[in-house]
Amino acid sequence: MGEVMPDRMRDEELADFVERVERGDVAGVVADLISAVPEDWGHGYNWDWKEANSERFDKFIQTVLAASGAKLSLELVTELLANYVFVLVDQPDATDRGLVMWGRYLAARVDEVTEYVTDVMVTYSKSPDASWPTADLEEIARDSAKLSKRLSQRPTAD
After folding, report:
1. In the chain, how many domains are there?
2. Origin, by domain of life (predicted)?
3. Residue 37 — φ and ψ, nearest 5°?
4. Tens-digit pLDDT profile for residues 129-155
5. Residues 84 and 104 in one domain
6. Is the separation of the CB atoms in 141 and 107 below 8 Å?
7. Which residues contact 55 (CB under 8 A, 6 or more apart)?
8. Domain span at residue 46?
9. By C-alpha distance, which of 26, 7, 4 is closest to 17?
10. Which of 1, 62, 99, 156 could join 47 via S-S bond, C-beta 3.0 to 4.6 A?
11. What is the pLDDT of residues 29-79, one digit of tens each?
12. Nearest 5°: phi and psi at 59?
């Protein structure tokens, strides 16, 4: 899996992204990732580099996702978090960290959907109770936040 695939990110490019975050250019990296090709970040690429630099790569993912809120595409977040299942799985609690980040991302997106429903759908709704979708979405957001908190407080794996 370590061979360079044509038209895919080279190890040097991945290392540059990680080093930029380590130097504090988090906003610049997030800006670059907003327009990134999700497939370039797939768990099947840069396998050897990711395994050799697993702690750095883990911190990179955590930092970027925390700083980006819900700005990154669902496809890119899915690719980044897939690394927890396939590449970083040997680290203690890697899956739990991935689940916590996934929960936070979904909770942030639920807020975005709630805003859309409130501003667009409810305004033009013919429903006698036009507030129902907002209330349901707020409940989903609360549930997502609770799940994220519960996962982050689980006991660590042996």
Report:
1. 2
2. Bacteria
3. -85, 115
4. 656 666 666 777 777 777 767 767 766
5. no
6. yes
7. 91
8. 1-91
9. 26
10. 1
11. 999 999 998 888 887 789 899 999 999 999 999 999 989 978 898 889 989
12. -60, -40
